[in-house]
Specification:
mainly alpha, Rossmann fold, three-stranded parallel β-sheet, two-stranded parallel ribbon, 5 strands
Length: about 150
């Protein structure tokens, strides 16, 4: 079988190094402009990495962020605004508007996803797939702890 992602090789190496945890940044969905294989490959990698973790006892976490924005990539900020509005409308319909893909989820800042990744690795209770809401919850925990 072909390896769907370099992350699988990294997970295998993490097991060899006796890592206790492995975090993979995946994606919540794709965009209509990307080939379908983009998201199917990510799901395959998640599944294989999860299996590696189960066999070895290594805790695995797969973060599934939506569209990522950051001021260092200026064009992403207005796109995030548009996607935020689209995701709000989608939310009014229970998240069931067709063909939105990743645009149907609220965008996340790179900083929030990075903080969520660190928090997920610190908290041994976090494992498996973490969706957009879960990422936001972890990022909020980081923010709250920073306020103390």
């Amino acid at each position: 079988m072909l390896r769907p992602h370099a992350a699988v090789t990294l997970a295998e190496e993490a097991v060899k190094a006796d890592a206790k945890s492995f975090l993979y940044i995946s994606a919540i969905d794709s965009f209509f402009t990307l080939p379908k294989r983009y998201i199917t490959t990510k799901r395959e990698a998640e599944e294989i990495i999860g299996g590696i973790g189960e066999k070895s006892g290594m805790r695995t976490v797969s973060l599934r962020p939506s569209f990522l924005y950051d001021s260092s990539r200026a064009f992403t900020v207005p796109l995030a605004g548009v996607m935020g509005a689209v995701s709000a409308v989608n939310g009014l319909f229970g998240g069931k508007l067709p063909l939105l893909g990743a645009a149907g989820y609220r965008p996340l800042s790179v900083e929030d996803v990075a903080g969520a990744a660190v928090k997920a690795l610190e908290d041994e209770q976090v494992k498996g797939v973490v969706d957009v809401d879960g990422i936001q919850t972890l990022a909020t925990r980081v923010w709250r702890e920073g306020m103390l």
